[in-house]
Design brief:
homodimer, 445 residues, alpha/beta, Rossmann fold, Dihydrodipicolinate Reductase, domain 2, 2 domains, 9-stranded mixed sheet, 6-stranded parallel sheet, 16 helices, globular
Chain lengths: 445, 445
């Protein structure tokens, strides 16, 4: 399948380059009834969650799993065999063993759920081996890595899908549906962000991280020591980018970022470990709240918050505002001029959720029950798998992966330069002007 | 009184320069039982509101009123005489006649409620004539005007108070009280702004403004045609500045601004006047939503929204966030770690409002009933009048007026330069390091 896919995607890329919209109608190739064969790189908490969702489907075979920890691959193997599938091949021989997984002839795509620094190299290796790359967020850490992803996808013809699950959150998709139908009028301004108290994830157990840490504390905390910027923008920027048609008629042009001082993590170490704990001496580079403003080619602005070190209620801080009104995530509120019952008064989003519920959610609601993060994890994996099945581009593609992930290094650079504006590259090479979105157009994937 | 005041304020300025905190205890001079004598420059809607509040007090005599419209001064004169006071002198002889009002010997202070362009010249003239200047927001339109205000106040020893009423909003003052008591921990980040659909104020009647307009449409709309930036930041920036001790231990250091495209006003003209209305041809410079980020000397960030051209519920968009938790204006919500009943869940601000209600509000609640904007207009005028009575500096001073008002031109410059950071001047000449706040410290003013 590898060679077919590669050829197919050269053709596909050419079709895209010619302005042909590839709808998921299967017109390019007939639907393939063969099961989609996946490999999983990284089967920690996140990878295991993806694995379980894949195993719950009838159209997936899990051929291989990879991790650097035997406990992780053991658990993954058990999950696969318990699901009645054949024992998958295991890649456990150090950090580079994933390269042997991606070159297997019997897989169509890989799911990458590893620490951030591995995302881009693994996705690139997968594409070079002729596989669909499904990669967790952010897809890259540097601008150069973003370009490498794009160039690799273009050269190999293989898709790279950033697995941004929030694009499929039920309310977000209803709002997306409303945006496409023009209910908000012309979009003007969006808020979004990652406002999530991660202190007990960055330190686990107690005040520990790194070698003494558990879970994401093993690797994630180090980023807060060395880096200052929006380290995790895509949960907000991704969904908003789809609403704003970024890379398909619009693009991110420039950003500026500012960071507050850093207090939350140090205070947490003191509270958990006391003043004499060795981690109490650490200076954290990451400002507790990092705010980023983006200007878009079509004149809209986007505001992104990164707020992970302080106590607060969880919120992705969505606001979608157009010439007719606006929706706010916090307190599920909406106001539409001439539609909302009282002038200038919020109303509950509830009835709009029903009215504009996305066809995908209507169709797959029961399938998504129990899936992670309120069901949305089902949909992001569904989109990846259905794209492979249809041999079409993924609805969230390498240009999205690059445009959303590059916000991380550019935000760091802007913070370091006192809020100076940073140019956001046009990864599409000018094709954003006429490219068409194929994200969630109907109830298929 | 003019000469006494001027001498007194030279003395006062010297005391301030020496680091002496001037509390409103009357220790510098004994309390003066003579009534405070005011002149009113501009008696349109806003000035009349101030006038009515002044007339409701027993400690004020209104000696003079000034406007360019006879209907306005006629109405003001009637209000004064109806209140049982002597007929005030009237200054109605064109745009410069206010200069004759400010030089009267029988007034202690002036209230300036005129179109924006007149604020700084009038306040400067008042101070030069030895009068307390109370000036509506913003106090100035250019950086040079801000400096002129500061230099004039320093040279004359006369105070200039920007009449920022939202500093006295009841919930804002309760939050300010909490901030001073350390309930939020160390402050990290604030949101604020002016989110107010002004379309039917910028156009009145119908699609008219300027010579054919009424009310603020006569002069305010023109600013939306020519200028692009945060034209009206002080309702948010003022209260937040007081919480962050701006000019008294902290300062605004730099800002960046971005603006969306402009759609709302043009659409409104079309809706009100049709495509053939002459105003349908106007190109509006003002982006519908302008977002500004500020970095403070002590490491906090402030986000300011300006959103006046689109349909939306009114909101000043307050958020005050510290190391212990945060308050949000929208939906009166608060979360405090270890205090709020459920971890990471919003609770209603209601009980905090009771617990931390500011002493000023407790004392003057009944006096403020019926005063504009939910009562807060009472307090801002009260502070101005009580400062004059005590012959002390106003609790919101010329450095505040300058630091808050300069955000307007700097925001315009940043927008014009693609979001480039703009240095915010230190109008205190370095004294912010040790200056102490005397804003709303107790229940006096």
């Amino acid at each position: 399948m590898k060679k077919v896919n590669r050829r197919e995607f050269i053709k596909t890329s050419a079709a895209v380059a010619a302005g042909v919209s590839l709808l998921p109608s299967g017109i390019i190739l007939g639907r393939d009834d063969r099961k989609v064969r996946l490999g999983f790189i990284g089967v920690g908490l996140r990878g295991t969650s993806h694995l379980e969702l894949a195993l719950a489907r009838k159209d997936v075979e899990v051929k291989a799993v990879c991790d650097i920890r035997k406990a992780a691959t053991d658990n993954a193997v058990k999950l696969v065999t318990d699901a009645g599938q054949k024992k998958p091949a295991v890649y456990l021989n150090g950090e580079e063993d994933y390269r042997n997984l991606v070159t297997r002839e019997d897989i169509d795509g890989v799911i990458i759920s590893t620490p951030w620094v591995w995302h881009a190299p693994m996705a690139i290796a997968a594409m070079k081996a002729g596989k669909y790359a499904g990669v967790e967020v952010p897809a890259a850490l540097t601008e150069e890595e973003c370009w490498d992803l794009v160039h690799t996808s273009e050269e190999t013809g293989m898709p790279c899908m950033i697995l941004e699950n929030v694009c499929y959150r039920r309310d977000v998709m209803a709002v997306y549906n409303m945006v496409r139908q023009g209910i908000f009028g012309e979009l003007m301004h969006c808020h979004c962000g990652y406002q999530h108290d991660l202190r007990n994830i960055k330190f686990q157990p107690g005040a520990e991280f790194g070698e003494k840490g558990q879970g994401e504390a093993v690797w994630r905390t180090e980023h807060s020591i060395k880096r200052n910027g929006d380290l995790y923008p895509t949960h907000g920027a991704g969904p908003v980018a789809k609403m704003l048609d970024i890379n398909t008629g619009n693009r991110f042009v420039t950003l500026t970022s500012m960071a507050t001082k850093s207090r939350g993590l140090h205070n947490y170490v003191l509270a958990q470990g006391g003043e004499d704990h060795p981690n109490a001496k650490i200076k954290f580079a990451l400002g507790d709240i990092v705010t980023t403003m983006i200007k878009c080619a079509n004149g809209e602005t986007v505001l992104i918050s990164h707020d992970t070190n302080l106590p607060r209620p969880y919120s992705l801080n969505f606001r979608v505002q157009g010439t007719n009104g606006l929706w706010m995530d916090d307190f599920d509120s909406i106001y539409l001029e001439g539609v909302s019952p009282e002038p200038h008064r919020w109303e509950s989003f509830e009835k709009y959720q029903e009215q504009y519920d996305h066809p995908l959610w209507k169709k797959y609601e029961s399938d998504s029950e129990g899936a992670g993060h309120g069901g949305m994890d089902f949909f992001v994996l569904h989109a990846f798998i259905e794209s492979i099945k249809r041999k079409v581009p993924t609805p969230i593609d390498v240009y999205d992966a690059a445009a959303w992930s590059v916000l991380v290094p550019l935000s760091e650079q802007s913070v370091a330069q006192g809020g100076a504006p940073m140019a956001i590259p046009d990864f599409t090479g000018g094709r954003w002007v006429w490219r068409k979105s194929d994200f969630a157009l109907d109830d298929q994937y």
